[in-house]
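Q: Hi! First time doing this. I have a protein sequence and I read that you can turn it into a structure. Is that right? Here it is:
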Amino acid sequence: MVKKLALFCNVLLFAGIFFFFAVYRKQPDTPSSLASGSLSVQVQEANILYQSLPKTLETKELRVCFREEELACDRSTNTFYLPVNMDEPTWEAGTFTEINKELEVLPLEDYTTFDKKKTVAEGSRVLFLVWDKKEDSCATIDVVFTGLSITRIETDANLEIDTVFAGSVVFYQDCGQRNWTLTSAFQAKERGQTTREFPKKGYRLNLISITPTGVVRENKKSVLGMRSSDSWIFYAIYSDESKVRDKLNIELWNEFGASPQENQIHFGTHMEYTELFVNGEYRGLYGILEPIDSAQLSIFEHEYLYKRTYGRELRSELFDEVPTEEYLGVLGMDIKGREEYGSKADWECFRRFVELCEKDDEDFTEEAEILLDIDNFTDIWLYLQMIYGEDNIYKNMFFAFKKETRDYRLYLIPWDVDLSWGNIYVDDGEKLYTTYAPKRASEYLEWPFADRVLSLDVGGVKSLAAKKWQSLREGTLSEEHIEEVLLECIHLVQDSGAFARDADRWPLSPHSSDMKNIRLFMKERMVFMDAYMDKIEVE
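A: Yes, that's right. Below is the predicted 3D structure, encoded as structure tokens:
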């Protein structure tokens, strides 16, 4: 109760901040880009002032804007960050100003003459002069141009202590866009299981709006081009040395398994990279993900969504032995879209699945054909086998029960797929619970439920899997296409400059720009999968 009261007080406190920001500010019409050398006059003036004025201007609380939008700042280094389109060689047009326009901000270097892609990739700092005309004093600041989006959070909470907090958030896309910022109030909490032990924390932000009378409402917005939602996951990407596994796997799943042609529902998520700032502190590289929830999956009344959170033994009698509030600890399962832990009736669909797994072969085959969407099952089995998603067999999976004409249909959805392509779980905190196991490339990934479906050839799954694999290998899962997707992920992380900045910010987090292990594992895994699927086809 005390936490909820404190949270509500924080929400009201930050209501003023929210109303200070315009959710989508109208941007002034500006040229699309700057010509090379266009800042030479300003640079000349700035250097004259720099040589003549005392360097006594206080910059501790300086607020710098670009195109009238306040920029994120790392106060420890007095460095401001501006997101740009790193794939466009010309520099975005716009003017740097101080928020109250009482000070003048001038470039000391004509960055329009710099190679933009190189400047961004190397994280080069561009020097600017801040001039107080009234006091005739000045100071210098740095500006870094990043190729990723930026997220700026302001809160009264101490995130080293508080796990529940509130405040205001600004999302920045590249500044060349007309509406390049989005601002909202939020409520948030720390998230994760094993990852909570890491110094770099993950969060779940719920965007809210606050009425003049203090009523808190959901504030559904499209963030960084993703779907409209009020809830967003900030994934810390701490233990994966490549920083690309999750993004790569999400993109691959979205291409072949997330959107069945006969169903308009997207059985997956999307992820965009961002660099996070909290209260003037650079917090590093994050992934912002759409939540997999009832809204995403169009879960209506009498439909159900469960998440496998822990690797616990599933036995049907456990549903009767403990109350629903203990299911998470006993069954390792959570229910979404229901009050608290749901009622016993809300768990009947998942109980049916557990009971199915306990039946003899004949009954199992008959009921599995009714319950499973064979296309979805085949896709997720192929997917987890391909990436060797060991951590997604007994946890990190969503179970969506969709009501059809006469019965329910089960759809399986992967989640948290960083332990893949050779990275597996190890019970060792010093290794960040992750180790690289290259031998797994030529090993079958055991999944008892799926293995039984396959051995009994439920719904003709063997033939379907073989045909799908052959088709996928000619397109989506060809070596050429997977490499193309991988290169794009690497480009986003490394050529944006964010990879190096994250490594500096979190030196104990593994960082490796060498993708040799991933590529080698991919190559060997595809050889194994091709041979295995050829075997299935002739069985």
